[in-house]
Amino acid sequence: MKGEIRYLLGKEVEVVAHGIIYRGRLIEVGIEEVYLKGDAGWITLMTPDIEDIRESGAKKRDKTVVD
Q1: Which CATH architecture has domain 2-55?
Q2: CB 3.0 to 4.6 Å from 52: which of 4, 15, 16, 38, for a disulfide?
């Protein structure tokens, strides 16, 4: 998991939380929060709420990056 997250840092990603897809540049993944820089500003999501993190344009996966 850590290797996949490091690979995505600084890239445009899609983060799924509570069934909503958030898009932006992945800045940081912490124990409690995930930070994205979106077009309209900063997006902060609670890490336990995240269902999936994937590179923008990637197909939905069966296994999530964040467990």
Answers
A1: Roll (2.30)
A2: 16
